Amino acid sequence: MLRRLVSNFSTPMIQTASICAEAHYTPIKKQEKCPEGYLRHPDPLSREIVIKGYKSRTGRLIDFVKADFRDRDMAAQFFCEEYSAHNNCCRHANMTFEDFECMAAPGTDLMLDRGDVFMAFDGDKLVATHLVSYYYEDKLNDIFHGELPGDANPVFKVKDDYADVIKTYNFNPAMNRYMALLDTIQPQTGKFLPKGVKALGINEVLSVLPEYQKDGIGYTMLSLGDAECIKRGITHIAGYALAVGTQKICKELGYDSLYTLPYTDFKENGTPVYANLYDGAIVADSLVRAL
User: Fold this and answer.
1) SS3 category, 282
2) Does residue 225 sit within a domain?
């Protein structure tokens, strides 16, 4: 849920998600990959080291670091390439790097400024990134539009059709539909949170290269976000699982489902936008865990 930087339109009956696409952003300066297809950095450990030499499930030694502003283009490129190619909804829409750049570039900028971007390296190869944001009581009203924790009978609002919402966005068609989905599931979280929640961490985006997805890197990166939240005095962390794999990881880590949006209910002119996703996902799941 990356906070929207600029809103040039209104969305009838739907609140605004924190993950955002932007019409105006600094383009990503793409780094040339090595012949094996990886983004590389000659000195990954010159950043703040979080874990050095983690032995993965397959025996690889992985270093986890916090990105800084010099990493902006590399982190944004990785986010844009991996998410547009492998996220189930993006893949279903045949979203390209150019389609998704309007979200990846400003989202990375925002997390470098106000959140955290964790990076995982196998030697000098970038193999995963995880973006995490932190919200305190003074911001909860804004991101949840006044629907705050402690509602005794929260209701997840679903429209009969989202064609009118999709039309309000000014991006490419694939991104317009994706933003409408996010703006449906994310901002309604607040009213489902337990009474007394005054600070919330959010797992924004977790991307792991396909060939590293059996190494336990995703679980480790989520635990890094947890640890950072605890250090900051945050009591709960949320996530939005669009894919089956993400839903499985969150459930194994003890997340509770707050509500789900069946993809069959997210329609444009009567037709489900995300039907028959390649991973078999049938719902988008909003989840939370107490720390």
Assistant:
1) coil
2) yes
Q: Are strands 199-208 and 236-241 parallel, antiparallel or unpaired?
A: parallel
The answer to pTM > 0.85 is yes
CATH code at position 283:
3.40.630.30
Choose among 227, 186, 191: nearest CA to 204: 186
Give yes or no for a contact between 226 and 291, defined as CB atoms under 8 angstroms apart. yes
Is residue 29 assigned to a domain? no
- Write down the residue that tokens 């609002």 correspond to: 157
| pLDDT digit string (tens) for the chain, length 291 residues | 443 332 333 333 333 445 567 878 999 999 999 999 999 999 999 999 999 999 999 999 999 999 999 999 999 999 999 999 999 999 999 999 999 999 999 999 999 999 999 999 999 999 999 999 999 999 999 889 889 999 999 999 999 999 999 999 999 999 999 999 999 999 999 999 999 999 999 999 999 999 999 999 999 999 999 999 999 999 999 999 999 999 999 999 999 999 999 999 999 999 999 999 999 999 999 999 999
**Phi-psi label, residue 65: left if phi above 0, alpha if psi -120 to 50, beta otherwise:** beta
Task: Count Cβ atoms below 10 Å from residue 11 Cβ, excluding itself.
Answer: 20
Full residue range of the structural domain in which residue 181 is found = 44-290
> In the block, which residue shows the tokens 């874990």?
51
- Look at residues 239, 262, 243 and name the one whose alpha carbon lies nearest to residue 87: 243
Strand 267-268 relative to strand 256-262: parallel, antiparallel, unpaired? Answer: unpaired
Total domains in the chain come to 1
Classify residue 22: in a domain, yes or no: no
